[in-house]
Amino acid sequence: MKREIIITGDGSKTIHIPEWDEQYHSKHGAIQEAQHVFLQMGLHHYVSQESYNKAQTVAILEMGFGTGLNVLLTFFEAQNKKINIQYTGVEAYPISEEEVNAMDYSSLLDELEAQAIYMKLHEVSWESQEEITSEFKLLKRKQRFEDIVDQDQFDIVYFDAFGARVQPELWGEDIFLKMYNAVRKGGILVTYAAKGSVRRAMQAVGFEVERLPGPPGKREMLRATKF
């Protein structure tokens, strides 16, 4: 399918698929959405809990590696907050080198090495874990969501699939059961989605689900916890 680069509401770029009228990130602001949904409601929430041990390594699974924005923001947040991260990104259809170069997220981030780190994250070989720094390790897996078989491996899931309107098969009980099995007890899943059918699918497989304030342009989002 044709893909084109657009500028979102906060000045950051994303990829738009005209055939679906769907974006990789919110058209209201790619960076704002990622910071709110995945960092604030995901990573920040997890490490603020009493059960979190500062010496532990937080294992994150990103469903939909896409442009690499979420891993880039997580990298700098982890460095600034001194959080050890093992990051696994799953993506069936990686973006092109041309699209990577066009994103230009570094111009909007107050981080000196943002561009170099962004490029390094994309240059990591697929299926091979690489140490970005001693505190941040990245594994990228070229894989369909349907093929996930991890068991009790992750503390946080960033669920960033295309919307249920265009890919409803990724938002049903079958996929969320895979997510439930992949998460450790006490782990969480966060997503920009807030549809009732998505919430019910999460609850049906065992998650306890909260409705939370959404990012700019969206009233609500969901966070699911495995108890």
Structure commentary:
The chain has 227 residues and is an alpha/beta fold. The chain has a single domain (28-225), classed as 3-Layer(aba) Sandwich (Rossmann fold), CATH 3.40.50. Helix content is 30%, strand content 27%. The radius of gyration is 16 Å and the shape is globular. The protein starts with a strand and ends with a strand. The model has no long low-confidence stretch (mean pLDDT 97).
- The count of domains is 1
| N→C terminal distance | 40 Å
CATH architecture: 3-Layer(aba) Sandwich
Strand order of the largest sheet: 6-7-5-4-8-9-11-10
Order of helices and strands: EEEHEHEHHEEEHEHEE
Question: Which fold name corresponds to the CATH topology?
Answer: Rossmann fold
Q: Major sheet: size, sense and barrel closure?
A: 8 strands, mixed
Structural key phrases:
single chain; 227 residues; alpha/beta; Rossmann fold; three-stranded antiparallel sheet
Short description:
The protein is α/β, with parallel strands linked by helices and 227 residues long. The chain is 30% helix and 27% strand.
Spell out the blueprint of helices and strands.
Blueprint: E1 4-7, E2 13-17, E3 22-23, H1 30-48, E4 57-63, H2 69-81, E5 84-90, H3 97-103, H4 114-123, E6 130-133, E7 136-141, E8 154-159, H5 173-182, E9 183-191, H6 196-204, E10 208-213, E11 220-225
